[in-house]
Amino acid sequence: MNEYVTAFIGSLQTAGRRRSPLTLESYERDLTQLLAYVKAEGIERVQDIQKHHLSYYFLRLKQQGRSSATISRQMVSARAFFHYLLAGGSIAADPAQHLEAPKQEKRVPEALTLDEVERLLAAPDRTSQAGMRDIAMLELLYATGMRVSELISLDLEHVQLMLGFIRCIDAKAKERIIPLGGAASEALKAYLTDIRPRLAKDGGQALFVNLQGSRMTRQGFWKIIKKHAREAGIESDLAPHSLRHAFASHLLQNGADLHSVQEMMGHAGLQTTQLYVQQTKTRIKDVYDLAHPRAKRQI
């Protein structure tokens, strides 16, 4: 059955339907897991997969403690796959057509504290090429709030140091202009002047490269930020978007307006940006409870 997955992934790479490498990896991983499950249930052909098989599979994921977001993503993969099989005549009916995705709870993203951010930014070795590159990447993420996927997709032409901004292009090819702070500008200038010319050996346009001279990958960056978090003694749960969340939270805590933060973050609507307002209000209440002499006194 895996040959159908291979053909499906190939169809997503054709002109006009191209997906990002991360999206293709997610599709392939999700579908491989799904087909491994139905095969273990004794099903050898995609034509024999029924709706109840899929329902049991997604119920099993829920019982395993998988998040609603993960289950929803896997349902999207399944729907796209079976729609492809139906359109190509490989199956007579679509078993995923009426699957109901679980309701997703909007969670407030966890953001690093200002002290944790300062320690993280101070962790890289400023005497090494890799350390100077890492400082530039971390400073840029915190200064702009861009996604990791956007960071590693940056080319030299997207950087406008003299004008003080970065041109960021998201996965939907939407461009936004994000201002650069002084610390990020200085770190980028040092990297572009002294470090990148020695690392980028193939003459490519990638802004950030690894020690082999190739474009930095998401996995490579994740290893880097985890390494520096350990060195900084940061014990809170770290995610690839931790600096992005810190960017939004710290701006709002210091009086930035919601619409400006939304535009810089690249959020389609205010609803997502407002989650950071909720987090800010929660933190203010915590500070009040700790600091006010009568906060916990009973009358």
UniProtKB/TrEMBL annotation:
Active site per the UniProt annotation: 147, 241, 244, 267, 276 (o-(3'-phospho-dna)-tyrosine intermediate)
Molecular function as annotated in GO: DNA binding; tyrosine-based site-specific recombinase activity
Subcellular location per the Swiss-Prot or TrEMBL entry: Cytoplasm
GO cellular component: cytoplasm
Alphabetized UniProt keyword annotations: Cell cycle, Cell division, Chromosome partition, Cytoplasm, DNA integration, DNA recombination, DNA-binding
BP terms from Gene Ontology: cell division; chromosome segregation; DNA transposition
UniProt key word Phosphoprotein: no
Ranges where the Tyr recombinase domain occurs: 107-289
Annotated ranges, domain Core-binding (CB): 1-86
Cross-referenced HAMAP family: Recomb_XerC_XerD (MF_01808)
Role according to the record: Site-specific tyrosine recombinase, which acts by catalyzing the cutting and rejoining of the recombining DNA molecules. The XerC-XerD complex is essential to convert dimers of the bacterial chromosome into monomers to permit their segregation at cell division. It also contributes to the segregational stability of plasmids.
Listed name of the protein: Tyrosine recombinase XerC
Species assigned in the record: Paenibacillus sacheonensis
Lineage, highest ranks first: Bacteria, Bacillati, Bacillota, Bacilli, Bacillales
Gene name of the record: xerC
